[in-house]
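Input record, target 12 of the design panel.
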C-alpha cells in the first residue's frame, strides 16, 4: 500500500472506529488477565495500557493506534473487510 493510501486509511472515520473498538476490546481482555507466569514488567506494562485506554474510551491513543495499524503490511486496500 502506498504512503498516501496508508495516510488516507489512518484518517478514515470507519477504520478509526474499528480500531477504537479493537483497542477497548483488547483492554478489557487484558484487564481480566491474571499475572500467572507473566514477567512482572510485562504484566505491569499491559495493565498500564488498560489504564491508558479504558478511562477515555481510547480517544487519547486513537491516532497512535490508527497510524500504527495503517502501516502494517498485512493491511491492504481491502480494509473494508469485517474485522
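The sequence produced for target 12 reads:
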Amino acid at each position: 500500500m502506498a504512503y498516501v493510501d496508508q495516510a488516507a486509511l489512518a484518517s478514515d472515520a470507519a477504520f478509526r472506529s474499528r480500531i477504537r473498538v479493537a483497542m477497548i476490546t483488547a483492554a478489557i481482555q487484558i484487564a481480566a488477565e491474571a499475572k500467572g507466569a507473566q514477567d512482572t514488567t510485562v504484566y505491569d506494562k499491559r495493565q498500564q495500557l488498560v489504564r491508558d485506554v479504558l478511562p477515555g474510551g481510547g480517544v487519547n491513543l486513537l491516532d497512535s493506534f490508527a497510524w500504527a495499524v495503517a502501516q502494517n503490511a498485512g493491511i491492504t486496500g481491502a480494509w473494508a473487510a469485517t474485522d
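Residues 3-70 form one domain.
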